[in-house]
Design brief:
Number of strands: 0
Radius of gyration: 20 Å
Shape: globular
Number of domains: 2
Helix content: over 70%
Order of helices and strands: HHHHHHHHHHHHHH
Length: 350
């Protein structure tokens, strides 16, 4: 299927977003290391010297540029195309870490990178065309169709049950609770981001959409969903090992976002069965590559841990079942600080 101009623009912006966000992790980590060396106190131990480090701020600006590019990408291309491409930021981060931070990239990690690229190519080739939208009212009509209202209602019910019943009892022992909440809210935030981005795009084209109350409503929904999403993602990252949270969150968030987009924007309408099956296969390949990358990273850290300490750390599958990855949270001397862990949400959001 040929690329429309909007799809091509969204694709390029998504690639740029992944590049900037992936590079921002490495730049910020270099800044954190430099600040820790100068002050003697790491960010993970409560130090804030990184706020005076220009390199850290350069990394933060790079990440913001990537997030903005991702936001704009949703205004031009369907979420089915943009969201899975967020996995490429993991590749950029892994490759740069290998060469700049001297963090070894395992052979299976390289295979994971290849799988992510191959899956992304399949998705891009068979991605649906962006639907032409001429006003915010058209988006409202899509958002109020029965099927999508049922999806939104189901999401809100699940979120409330998870927050008020499961989180207090199982939130700190089962990784699926916190990641489930932020993934469900994340799918709604992406739909609202796409609606808001499209409204701003139309406004810049001379069709002012800011005069409509619906535009500001979508802005409110974006703020509410993102705040809730980040709150529970930070809880997940603070409670469990990143090597567990990242792949689970990416799989849940990306899957739910694509489902929401298919329902609201009817991305698959008019596509052949072959194209849809190819997109699903490409998506599965990307998910598999992403999980392999993170499992490999966890394996390397586990090996290092076992080489320095007598007790054996639990396997990834064991910790996935128990939901607790605390044993590896501080296993490496140069492991991620709390500041880095918080910033890793983009590993994934896009």
């Amino acid at each position: 299927m040929g690329f429309s101009k909007d799809n091509l623009t969204g694709f390029i912006l998504a690639l740029l977003s992944s590049g900037f966000i992936g590079a921002s992790f490495i730049i910020k980590k270099k800044g954190l290391r430099r600040a820790a060396a100068a002050s003697g106190v790491r960010a993970g131990m409560g130090g804030h010297a990184y706020l005076l480090e220009p390199l850290w701020w350069f990394g933060m600006i790079t990440m913001i540029v990537g997030e903005v590019a991702n936001f704009v990408a949703y205004a031009f291309a369907p979420a089915v195309l943009v969201t899975p491409l967020g996995a490429l930021s993991i590749i950029v981060s892994a490759v740069l870490a290998h060469f700049i931070l001297k963090e070894k990239l395992h052979k299976l990690g390289i295979l994971g990178c290849v799988m992510c690229i191959a899956g992304s190519v399949i998705i891009v080739i068979h991605a649906p065309q962006e639907r032409s939208i001429s006003s915010i009212q058209q988006i409202v009509n899509m958002a109020t169709q029965p099927a999508f209202l049922l999806y939104v209602g189901s999401v809100m019910v699940l979120v409330f049950i998870l927050i008020f019943y499961f989180a207090p009892q199982y939130g700190h022992t089962n990784v699926l609770i916190f990641t489930g909440i932020c993934s469900l809210m994340g799918s709604l935030s992406v739909m609202s981001v796409k609606a808001l981005g499209t409204a701003l795009k139309l406004t810049f084209e001379g069709k002012n959409q800011l005069i409509y109350l619906e535009t500001w409503f979508f802005m409110f929904v974006v703020a509410t969903c993102v705040i809730t999403q980040m709150n529970y993602l930070n809880k997940a990252l603070d409670t469990f090992n990143t090597a567990i949270v990242s792949p689970i969150y990416y799989v849940l968030f990306t899957t739910l976002t694509i489902v929401a987009s298919i329902i609201m924007f009817k991305d698959w309408d008019g596509q052949s069965a072959g194209s849809i099956i190819s997109e699903i296969c490409g998506f599965i390949v990307v998910l598999s590559g992403t999980i392999l990358l993170h499992v490999t990273k966890d394996f390397e850290r586990s090996s290092s841990f076992r080489g320095n300490y007598t007790p054996l750390s639990p396997t990834l599958s064991t910790r996935l079942c128990s939901g607790n990855g605390e044993s590896l949270k501080h296993d490496v001397e140069e492991g991620p600080s709390s500041e880095e862990v918080s910033s890793r949400r983009q590993d994934l959001y896009t």
